[in-house]
Design goal:
The chain has about 375 residues and is an alpha/beta fold. It contains 16 helices and five strands. The chain has a five-stranded parallel sheet, with helices on both faces. The longest helix has 24 residues. It binds zinc ion (ZN). Zinc ion binds next to helix 4.
């Protein structure tokens, strides 16, 4: 389960209004859509917000508490004392305390497989869905709902997708499904049509900066965190990868390529073609460098630089290359196009050359 719990307050504050329509509807008529789809760019916090929401669903003092009313007692009448119901998990009840210890009763979390380093995502194992089906007859053990999270559902293969589709068509009583996806267009239309989509917007750089500084492992200079939060395009995971030494070095070499193509060209191709992760990283970095050059061309000196620490060299490069707006936009479009090929190509070196080619062309 690759999610932070509890989520950073900055993240909750930014995303939680997206959940309001669900809470409004539940308060109004007690109804909750059984299949939710959380979408937004990779690393925006979808899974952390899913856990935040599940804590609220399970909290004994939340509006969801007692959603499944017990059968009328033999002795007639209810003696339950009315307690005010909240839209914020209390953090003190039995369910909240279990959650704080990572003991989530009635939660089934299905992740895709990852590679040995845990970085690269594969597809989901069909076994997980078979096991899920075996539990379908069961109701929640303790909480008002049994919740199933299918993380990165856009990485389900056909077999897994068909398997879960059958479950979603007839969801068991008091079961709730939360799917997360960065690219919802990769989900089967038949699954999409069953989902209520909740879209999470990219985070602002200042908010990412605060979240980075809050990270207990955050032994990094503020200067670097500032660049990372701006280069992250709204994604916390992308910001974290920007903080790494390897990314930092690669960025400087890409800027170096613009200053001195002959010296950097071959070495950089070798470096970025060694893995798809590096190739994607190079594309991300080139995109942010080009965005700086484009903003400089449009707005002059006064814009907010992503690579603020490299402002002077970049201005010099921009003046020397003399690329106009159309040229910069075309190069950015080329990067988007090549990103689609990074997972498909067999010849990484050739793709690396294609990726770097617009960097070299002075026409
Ligand atoms: Zn609680």
């Amino acid at each position: 389960m690759n999610a932070t719990f509890p989520a950073a307050p900055e993240l909750i504050e930014w995303h939680s209004p997206r959940l309001d329509p669900l809470l409004d509807r539940f308060e109004k008529d007690g109804a909750l859509h059984t299949t939710l789809l959380f979408t937004g760019v990779e690393g925006v916090g979808k899974k952390s917000i899913a856990l935040h929401f599940i804590q609220l669903l399970f909290c004994d003092r939340s509006i969801f508490a007692g959603a499944e009313e017990p059968e009328d007692s033999l002795f007639g009448g209810s003696t339950t004392v009315e307690t005010p119901k909240s839209r914020i998990a209390c953090g003190e009840c039995g369910s909240c305390i279990r959650a704080s210890r990572g003991q989530w009763l009635d939660l089934i979390w299905i992740d895709p497989e990852t590679d040995e380093e845990g970085k690269r995502l594969g597809t989901h194992k069909i076994k997980a869905f078979r096991e899920l089906k075996e539990k379908l007859g069961l109701g929640p053990a303790e909480e008002p709902f049994r919740v199933v999270v299918i993380a990165d559902a856009d990485r389900m293969n056909q077999e897994s997708a068909n398997s879960i589709l059958k479950v979603l068509e007839e969801p068991p009583k008091n079961w709730l499904f939360i799917l997360t996806a960065s690219d919802s267009s990769r989900l089967l239309p038949t699954i999409l049509s069953r989902c209520m989509e909740i879209k999470f917007s990219p985070l602002e750089p200042d908010r990412i900066f605060s979240i980075l500084k809050r990270d207990p492992s955050g032994e990094f200079p503020s200067r670097r965190a500032k660049v990372a939060s701006r280069a992250a395009m709204g994604s916390i995971s992308r910001a974290k990868s920007c903080l790494e030494e390897e990314t930092w070095e690669l960025r400087d070499r890409l800027i170096g390529l613009l200053s001195n193509p002959a010296a950097e060209w071959m070495g950089l191709i070798d470096t970025i073609s060694t893995s798809q992760i590096r190739l994607s990283l190079a594309l991300d970095l080139m995109e942010t460098i080009l965005m700086d050059l484009l903003s400089h061309r449009i707005k002059g000196d006064g814009h907010l630089w992503i690579h603020e620490d490299q402002k002077e060299p970049l201005i010099e490069i921009a003046d020397r290359l003399g690329w106009d707006i159309a040229r910069l936009v075309r190069t950015l479009e080329g990067i988007a196009e090549r990103r689609r090929h990074t997972g498909l190509t067999l010849n990484a070196k050739l793709l690396a050359q294609e990726v770097l080619a617009p960097w070299m062309d002075r026409s």
